[in-house]
């Protein structure tokens, strides 16, 4: 395998499954750190803040500097600040997206939003879904942090933000703007903030439709690992192949 300067790891299904670490990936990360390469982490999970993601990594034995951790919440908030300045923003989701919006100077509103942003909320109820569909029917721009239908945990697959965003979009008859992978936004941000060229970067992930497509759209090399959402057998049937298809990182 070629040597890179920026190894960008997906988290769920690549570095850990729920609270369980994926040992092959963790020892690969530790070996990179021993030779002076500090990897990056690129997650569609919008529920956690950078600090909470850092804690989740420490819990499985990975020390990561905060500025190497990128989430769809962070990038979504920056996208809204840049493209909808001064507009009233309502949100559904947890700490991750709320803190990211506040960091951009956006205080979420309850009534008459011009933008509705949707991240995963694990305490989701019918009223919240109803409010979202109404706000979007009344014309609020519909933005979802990510389109993952499901994510792997130690118990099996659980519903992801994409499942709920699709539900709301179907009812309101509006297609959401999705910000997380496969959009190349997070990799673009790493390249510009840390000064890497595409040739120096590689995207590593378990999900073909998000991780691998993100790398392909961005234009860097990709590594698919068979430890999460997309089985290797389905990856091999795809027209656009990852640079490397492996069972696990060794
Ligand atoms: Mg994943």
Automatic annotation (TrEMBL):
Keywords: Hydrolase, Magnesium, Metal-binding. GO terms for molecular function: hydrolase activity. Transmembrane segments: none annotated. Its cofactor is Mg(2+). Pfam families: Hydrolase_6 (PF13344), Hydrolase_like (PF13242). Belongs to the HAD-like hydrolase superfamily. NagD family. This is TIGR01457 family HAD-type hydrolase. It comes from Lysinibacillus pakistanensis.
């Amino acid at each position: 395998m070629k040597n890179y300067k920026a190894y960008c790891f997906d988290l769920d299904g690549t570095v850990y499954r729920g609270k369980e670490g994926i040992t092959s990936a963790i020892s690969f990360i530790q070996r990179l750190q021993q030779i002076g390469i500090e990897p990056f982490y690129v997650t569609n999970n919008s529920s956690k803040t950078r600090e909470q993601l850092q804690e989740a990594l420490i819990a499985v034995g990975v020390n990561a500097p905060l500025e190497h951790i990128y989430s769809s919440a962070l990038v979504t908030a920056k996208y809204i600040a840049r493209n909808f300045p001064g507009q009233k923003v309502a949100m559904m989701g947890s700490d991750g997206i709320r803190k990211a919006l506040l960091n951009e100077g956006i205080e979420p509103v309850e009534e008459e939003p011009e933008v509705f942003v949707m991240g995963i909320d694990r305490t989701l109820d019918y009223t919240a879904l109803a409010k979202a569909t109404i706000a979007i029917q009344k014309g609020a721009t519909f933005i979802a942090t990510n389109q993952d239908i499901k994510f792997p945990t130690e118990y099996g697959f659980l519903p992801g933000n994409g499942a709920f965003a699709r539900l709301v979009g179907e009812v309101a008859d509006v297609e959401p703007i999705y910000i997380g992978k496969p959009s190349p936004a997070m990799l673009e941000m790493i390249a510009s903030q840390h000064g890497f060229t595409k040739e120096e970067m590689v995207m590593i992930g378990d999900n073909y439709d998000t991780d691998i497509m993100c790398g392909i759209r961005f234009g860097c090399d990709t590594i698919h690992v068979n430890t999460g959402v997309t089985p290797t057998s389905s990856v091999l049937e795809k027209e656009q192949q990852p640079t490397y298809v492996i069972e696990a990182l060794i």
